């Protein structure tokens, strides 16, 4: 289940888009893929319910410019927390920009969401987009915070990354 | 589970009979999509459903770890007290679930378990042990939208499980199965294919011994087309299923839901009207929380009562199920093409997907060919932009195959949300989030066609 369109060459490199192990939702993945392709990336979409080991292997094999994890089923926090150290444990991926976003938790509470985002950053993600828009990813990529380049700022376990940060939607919106 | 050989504490309820009796009295049965991890909260939810001012049945929706049989992740989440997105029926000891249901589940309050698993053996084991004899699914509809299990494996699993479930009849509890085929990916599937898969899954259930079935149809983008689709579904049921063995269940919209309170209720109201006008017997509701989070108990009760009240002031429209329509022609062509692929329906379904006789738009599952594309026409009806290899040579095509751009896909995904939220919500962009992002940001017109959902 690898969605890799034959469109070459992608000037900005390859991005792996993937769900987490327990999440079956795919429309989010398809839209993120399109957005990234339109920004000039070559996208490999690993699809839903990706076991941690498969995701790690694909990332090691493809050496992507960036990894985008998307989850909306409410288990993204727990699954992501387990996944990040597994990705970072591979020397080949120690410096790869890895971001996560979507509806990551089951409980809708701004304080809890911010706490979870901070924990995810600590676990190894470079950015966390909780309840954010897909376009926030575009903005993040365009904002000049370099992806795949070292800025010299090192925070968290993966040194040499862009400044880790979280982006969250405002709470309690109907 | 050590309690496996205990005498069951609960007794099965004839779900199909319950619904048909209410329908005969002119009452639409309404049901929530509800599932909480904590047995006490689950019990409170069922209790509130039961006492709502409506003719209700209860729902226990299972969490994704249970669906995928990820025992390690489930055990870890339970040990750390992490919230789950549903009720972990396999992990909880049987006595816990029996206590959760005691005094609620009974002839006046059937409870259905909903899960979404292509590897449901453990789930069915738990249901059988608990005498919970109503559930939902299907070899196709609980596979393609729900992960990466190969279709042939899902068919094998479902064959085995349906046969086991059918044995409950001998134990005095008429088993009931509902198809999820009328929903599939939740959105942007032309109704002919939804109706066809729903019918094929019901035939599959009956082939393996479960007689009492219900067939789903999920509300789509156009009321007239939906009305036509339910009629087509009922006509095919009449033609292919034994009389008295089936009923139809309408799902309130299963795609990106409106984010405003008014929008959410308007859409639910339209679903209730569709159900009553078309003669459907049961409705599964959605709540104002849908676009954001798993709905709390009170929002479920409010939705159930609103839907029941809307249904009570709506009447069946008197149109005949026998009417011919494009949706009927399309669904019938698909059903008969699959039935022609062999007498064993499970095998026929696998072959149908191999050949592209069935092919779900935008579904990235490897056993789905991914050659079809759908789009909305100027009036909001779902059409085939590209029918792929669907055997629809004579019907249902609206001209030559055309490309669907990402901007179009984005607009189509948000069509219902926008229509029901109204013009004042134009700033709602890619999610129900709050940032005022222009809708087209990052989605320029004329962007490349969405790539085929497979490949290397
Ligand atoms: C369609 C749908 C389904 C379909 C999915 C079919 C498929 N294969 O895709 C079906 C019916 C199968 C389904 C099943 C389930 N679903 Co569902 N589903 C939805 C629904 C209605 C729409 C989701 C959708 O298609 N979104 C389309 C995308 C394009 O939009 P989006 O979700 O807003 O995603 C955007 C943003 O989140 C953001 N984003 C996402 N990821 C990332 C990543 C980054 C880096 C960035 C920057 C942004 C970003 O950008 C995305 C694209 O615009 C939503 C409710 C809703 N939103 O109306 C529920 C919903 C997501 N489902 C939910 C749940 C819980 C489930 C189930 C577990 C069943 C259950 N217990 O209710 C199962 C999943 C089983 C599993 N193993 O995961 C919950 C999640 C609750 C939570 N997070 O707390 C929701 C919110 C419904 C609800 N209110 O209960 N579902």
Show the helix and strand layout.
The complex is a heterodimer of chains A (174) and B (456).
Chain A: E1 14-18, H1 27-38, E2 42-45, H2 52-62, E3 66-71, H3 76-88, E4 98-102, H4 110-123, E5 127-130, H5 134-142, E6 165-168
Helix pairs in contact in A: 2-3, 3-4
Chain B: H1 15-24, E1 29-31, H2 39-51, E2 58-61, H3 64-68, H4 71-80, H5 94-101, E3 111-114, H6 121-130, E4 134-137, H7 151-166, E5 176-179, H8 191-207, E6 212-218, H9 223-240, E7 246-251, H10 261-278, E8 282-284, H11 297-312, H12 326-339, H13 345-355, E9 373-376, E10 382-386, H14 406-413, H15 415-421
Parallel strand pairs in B: 1-8, 2-3, 4-5, 5-6, 6-7, 7-8
Antiparallel strand pairs in B: 9-10
Helix pairs in contact in B: 2-5, 2-11, 6-7, 7-13, 8-9, 8-12, 9-10, 9-12, 10-11, 10-15
The structure holds cobalamin.
Report on the biggest sheet of chain B.
Answer: 6 strands, parallel
Q: What structural category arises from helix and sheet content of chain A?
A: alpha/beta
Write out the distinct hetero groups bound to the structure.
Answer: cobalamin
Beta-strand content estimate of chain B: 5-15%
* Secondary structure: helix percent of chain B: 25-40%
The CATH superfamily of the domain at 11-68 in chain A is identified as: Cobalamin-binding domain
**Strand element count of chain B:** 10
Q: Please write the string of helix (H) and strand (E) elements of chain B.
A: HEHEHHHEHEHEHEHEHEHHHEEHH
Largest interface: A-B, 50 and 58 residues
Mean pLDDT of chain B, to the nearest integer, reads 90
Q: Return the CATH class of the domain at 11-68 in chain A.
A: Alpha Beta
Strand residues, percent of chain A: 15-25%
CATH fold title of the domain at 11-68 in chain A:
Rossmann fold
Terminal Cα span of chain B: 43 Å
Rg of chain B (C-alpha, Å): 21 Å
Query: What is the radius of gyration of chain A?
Result: 15 Å
CATH superfamily of chain B: Methylmalonyl-CoA mutase
Text of the CATH class of chain B: Alpha Beta
């Amino acid at each position: 289940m690898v969605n890799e369109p034959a469109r070459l060459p992608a000037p900005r490199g390859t991005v792996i888009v993937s769900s987490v192990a327990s999440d079956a939702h795919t429309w989010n993945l398809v839209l993120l893929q399109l957005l990234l392709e339109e920004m000039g990336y070559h996208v490999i979409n690993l699809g839903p319910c990706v076991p941690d080991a498969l995701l790690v292997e694909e990332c090691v094999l493809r050496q992507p410019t960036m990894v985008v994890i998307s989850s909306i089923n409410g288990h993204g926090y727990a699954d992501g927390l387990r996944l990040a150290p597994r990705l970072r444990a591979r020397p080949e991926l120690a410096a790869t920009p890895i971001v996560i976003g979507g509806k990551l938790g089951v409980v809708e509470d701004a304080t809890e969401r911010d706490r979870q985002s901070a924990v995810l950053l600590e676990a190894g993600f470079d950015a966390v987009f909780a309840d954010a828009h897909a376009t926030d990813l575009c903005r993040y990529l365009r904002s000049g915070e370099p992806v795949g380049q070292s800025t010299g700022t090192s925070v968290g376990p993966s040194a040499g990354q862009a400044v880790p940060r979280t982006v969250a939607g405002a709470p309690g919106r109907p | 589970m050590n309690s496996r050989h205990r005498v069951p504490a609960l007794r099965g309820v004839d779900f199909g009979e319950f619904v048909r009796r209410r329908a005969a009295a002119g009452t639409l049965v309404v049901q929530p999509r509800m599932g909480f991890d904590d047995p006490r909260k689950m019990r409170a939810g069922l209790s509130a459903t039961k006492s709502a001012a409506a003719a209700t049945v209860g729902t226990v929706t299972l969490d994704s770890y249970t669906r995928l049989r990820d025992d390690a992740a489930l055990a870890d989440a339970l040990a750390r007290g992490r919230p789950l997105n549903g009720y972990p029926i396999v992990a909880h000891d049987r006595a816990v679930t029996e206590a959760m249901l005691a005094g609620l589940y009974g002839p006046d309050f059937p409870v259905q378990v909903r899960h979404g698993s292509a590897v449901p053996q453990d789930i069915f084991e738990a249901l059988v042990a608990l005498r919970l004899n109503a559930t939902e699914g299907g070899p196709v509809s609980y596979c393609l939208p729900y992960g990466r299990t190969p279709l042939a494996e899902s068919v094998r699993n479902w064959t085995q499980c349906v046969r086991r479930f059918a044995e409950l009849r001998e134990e005095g509890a008429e088993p009931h199965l509902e198809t999820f085929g009328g929903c599939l990916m939740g959105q942007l599937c032309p109704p002919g294919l939804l109706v066809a898969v729903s019918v094929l899954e019901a035939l599959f259930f009956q082939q393996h011994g479960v007689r009492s079935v219900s067939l789903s149809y999920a509300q789509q983008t156009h009321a007239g087309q939906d009305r036509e689709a339910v009629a087509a579904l009922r006509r095919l049921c009449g033609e292919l299923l034994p009389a008295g063995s089936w009923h139809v269940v309408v799902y309130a919209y299963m795609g990106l839901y409106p984010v405003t309170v008014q929008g959410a209720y308007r859409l639910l109201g339209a679903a209730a009207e569709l159900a009553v006008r078309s003669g459907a017997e049961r409705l599964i509701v959605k709540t104002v929380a849908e676009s954001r989070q798993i709905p709390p108990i009170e929002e479920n009760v409010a939705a159930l009562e609103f839907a029941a009240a809307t249904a009570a002031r709506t009447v069946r429209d008197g149109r005949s199920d026998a009417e011919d329509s494009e949706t009927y022609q399309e669904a019938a062509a698909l059903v008969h093409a699959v039935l022609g692929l062999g007498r064993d329906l499970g095998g026929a379904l696998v072959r149908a997907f191999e050949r592209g006789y069935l092919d779900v738009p935008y579904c990235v599952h490897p056993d789905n060919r991914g050659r079809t594309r759908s789009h909305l026409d100027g009036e909001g009806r779902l059409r085939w932009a590209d029918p792929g290899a669907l055997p629809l040579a004579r019907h249902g095509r609206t001209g030559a195959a055309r490309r669907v751009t990402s901007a179009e896909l984005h607009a189509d995904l948000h069509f219902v949300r926008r229509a029901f939220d109204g013009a004042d919500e134009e700033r709602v962009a890619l999610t129900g989030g709050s940032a005022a992002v222009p809708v087209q940001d990052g989605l320029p017109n004329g962007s490349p066609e969405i790539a085929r959902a497979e490949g290397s």
